[in-house]
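Field reference: sequence -> structure
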Amino acid sequence: MRSIRPSLLLLPCLLLLLGISRTADAKRDLKSACTTCRQVTDNFKKGIERTAKQGFGGGNTAWEERTLSKYETSEIRLTEILEAVCDSSSFECNRMVEEHEDLFETWWFKRKAKHPDLHKWFCVESVKVCCPKGAYGPQCKDCVGGSDRPCHGNGACDGDATRGGDGHCSCNHGYEGESCLECIDGYFGEVKNDTFTLCSECHASCQSCSGGTNQDCDECKAGWEEDEQDACVDVNECSKDPAPCGEEEYCINNDGSFSCKGCDKVCSGCTGAGANGCRDCAAGYHDVEGTCTDVDECSGGGAAAVVCAADHQQCVNTPGAHLCVCAEGHEERDGGCVPRALSEPDEEEPATEPPQAHDDL
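Structure field:
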């Protein structure tokens, strides 16, 4: 028996993928053709409005109207409208107008009065690249839910009003199911029957529900718990022991959750924001009527002398600390403060000779 090459075994799969790709491309092309056609008819209508108050250009207008028919229904007006329908760069638009120029002439001279809706007559009934609203596909089948309310008014029908698409419903937020008649988790059917559903959002505490209050929850969301009245209420994580936040953080309770914020720098541990939320004061700060306040180490003669005890030093207070600096007229040298006049020069300056006296000329 002859063995079959592996590449031949893959051939049916490749052909299937190619067929799927071509089908998808065809559906996109059908949708695109309808979009182009709507562009053509919309711009044609704008052209009608733009030329509504115009007349024959130049010459004796009264004679032209008697001889060539009224401008309102003239071929000249039709030509002016068609020439402005497409941008020069729009290939598909220009091709559609050129291929079906005879249909525009037919509608303009023979069908306009009986079929005033150009899009319906041209795109849907004549060139057949579009469908009526609420229908899709080559045969213009009604969308799920009917053409009046595609997807029962709760979604978008794939290919709606085009010859493309498969009619699949993409449901609006809050809805699900093939017909968009079901509510997703977090929503409930406030009004519901075989052809209509109104989904409303559950209370923030509910994972799922049968109504709009926190007593209608089927299940509480994380961060919520059931109380004695069977209502979902917020869990205060900040009251738990041990506390959920770090030593230098404080806890903020939110509906269904919590967050941790860093303590103020004046605090050593805290229960809330700011200098009045400290458990204890950080080094360099002390409690003044419930608020951690900077300790001025430099205030008071004795304190200043102790913290900056070296000769010719003075104390400078900083938030939570202090600095010892040389007093005015002194500079730091070899770990001490010495008068600037007595400090040694960094380099020996070369001796200078006294100026020589000169005899008067």
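Note: The chain has eight helices and 22 strands.
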